[in-house]
Design a protein that fits this description.
- It is a single chain.
- The chain has no helices and 5 strands.
- The strands form 2 sheets. Strands 1-2-3 form a 3-stranded antiparallel β-sheet, with no helix packed on it.
- Helix content is 0%, strand content 55%.
- The chain has 77 residues and is mainly beta.
């Protein structure tokens, strides 16, 4: 979520470990939520931010806005 120059990332994570021996089976699971907030630079194009999750890695792409070049006006006379 990007708003007022801030990017907010929120989600949940789950991990587990399983061990099985001859006489017993042990399973450990942990759950948790996370929340991170980052300040975006003024040049960030918040309308075109994209994110991709793959193999437990979140990749966020924040492109720069195309800067509007000042227009030159020729004065005749």
């Amino acid at each position: 979520h990007a708003e007022n120059g801030m990017l907010t990332i929120q989600g949940e994570r789950e991990s587990g470990k399983e061990e099985e021996k001859q006489n017993y089976k042990r399973i450990e699971r942990s759950y948790g939520s996370f929340f991170r907030r980052f300040t975006l630079p003024d040049t960030a194009d918040t309308d075109n931010i994209s994110a991709k999750g793959e193999h437990g890695v979140l990749t966020i792409i924040i492109p720069k806005r195309v800067e509007i070049q000042p227009r030159k006006i020729t004065v005749e006379g």
